[in-house]
Amino acid sequence: MNNKQKLELTWIGKDKRPKLEPRILLEDLEKSYHAKQRVTKNDLFDNRLIFGDNLLALKALEAEFTGKVKCVFIDPPYNTGSAFTHYDDGLEHSIWLSLMRDRLEIIRRLLSEDGSLWITIDDNECHYLKVLCDEIFGRRNFLSCSVWNHSVQSKGYRGKFSVHHNYILVYQKSSEFVLKDLPRQEEHNVNYSNPDNDPRGPWRAGDVRNSLVRPNLMYDIVTPSGKLIRHPPKGWRFSRETFEKELAEGKIKFSDDETRIIRKIYLADQEGRVPETIWFAKDVGTTREASAEVRAFVEGDFFDTPKPERLIKRVIELATNPGDLVLDSFAGSGTTGAVAHKMGRRWIMVELGEHCHTHIIPRLKKVIDGEDPGGITKAVGWQGGGGFRYFKLAPTLIVNDRWGNPIINPEYNAAMLAEALCKLEGFTYAPSEVFWWQHGHSSERDFIYVTTQNLSAERLQALSDEVGSERSLLVVCSAFRGVTAGEAALRWPNLTLKKIPKAVLARCEWGHDDYSLNVANLPMAKPDPVESSAAAEASRKTRSRKGSAASADQGSLFERNGGEDKQ
């Protein structure tokens, strides 16, 4: 194969990409919540809970948060097929991949260069998702496919495996990411001893063999009695200079028969422990434990596979520092935000389902008020504090009037319109208190002015004079009269004129509010004439457990039953 060729995952509809509208976010102060007083000087208040379609929400975050998110944890729908009994599997699988691709591409842009992505998934899509992430993040940035022992109780049907694991795919944005160590426990020190009374304390033997071929590390060693120790096939882990230095310091010693060397790894030098790729239930919890955590603050059982707080705690402690920003765009029952809050990290969560209001908000209020004793509360010494701001996605900017003509949405006031146009044109929305025509800026000398007025040539001349020759201004207006666009460019070189909505009509898919998986619109597959009675019974029992929130609306499973609510 040509080295320049690239292997890619293909699926039906891969070439189709949505033209997303960069919506603005509207805060609902009645749903935002903050502690009545500070608990510590490090309390965090500007966390964000966003209600709306998570693809549109991710797009809405791009302008402000590109390159600023340190850790993304997502728990997307596992695509188990239980919600697609009557639909063609190949098409359903392809839609799932497209939906994940669209979200992951924006997530990558939101991540900082030293950021990382953590995705929980099961066998149904794990291996396809791995290849998809390789395409988006690059294979060199793959870090781990860790196994989470999410269940310790045997279950299932005769002749089938009882599944006790899920996966956690981990990718870094770039090589700048630093994976942190886990805290050490006494049980991790059992292999350390001090048989030779080394003054540095307990030690264990470390591997002296190199994993890559390095010619400068391929040298033989002569022992004190004159024996020759040949180098390993790929060389030693250290240079000759390092070997001689550590030998003199007593950090390297020879075995009694002088047939091998021993390099000491000292317990005193081990501040933490390297994370492993198997995460046991006893360390990070199970879905049963997570269900109990959810039931502690809300009635009902709407989540089939919630994530325990201990699991999210491990992700956050491996990937972030206090004050870092954590994002979860499949919020589910809000575990990520609750854990990030208790651990002193800033957070953003996105959820479209009504459980945003029935589950997430009540949970976060208890966390903020210090009334959530469960999960990791005791482990991190959480006592309450901080807060969050609640946002919803603004409606679409462009709608059709009763004659079918595109117009600016009447729901937009002047401030909303200015902010929306700033986002569309790539400007930072920052209205000036001094200059009425400065609604935003892209640099120190480049500004934008948004108005629904019809501007005359006289008004444009006055505007040009006030802007001056040292600055430039994008003027977005309903219309201008008395001059053509070409004449305007010659008369006022410091102004650029655009008419709305005409200038933005082709930019986006206006009026598209839901990019979730709409199974109601999928074509029906041919029925399977030999469906077993056991499978039918399993399907019936699965549907009966979904709860009222899931059964009420199966039309948008990728969002409303996403995150921790697996179908």
UniProtKB/TrEMBL annotation:
GO molecular function, one term: DNA binding
Transmembrane residue ranges: none
Keywords (A to Z) from UniProt: Methyltransferase, S-adenosyl-L-methionine, Transferase
The species this protein was found in: Thermomonas haemolytica
Keyword Manganese in record: no
Region span, Disordered: 526-567
Entry EC number(s): 2.1.1.72
Designated name of the protein: site-specific DNA-methyltransferase (adenine-specific)
Enzyme class: transferase
Entry similarity comment: Belongs to the N(4)/N(6)-methyltransferase family.
Residue ranges of domain DNA methylase N-4/N-6 in the record: 69-358
BP-aspect Gene Ontology terms: methylation
Upper classification of the organism: Bacteria, Pseudomonadati, Pseudomonadota, Gammaproteobacteria, Lysobacterales
Domain of life where this protein originates: Bacteria
Catalytic activities: a 2'-deoxyadenosine in DNA + S-adenosyl-L-methionine = an N(6)-methyl-2'-deoxyadenosine in DNA + S-adenosyl-L-homocysteine + H(+)
Signal peptide: none
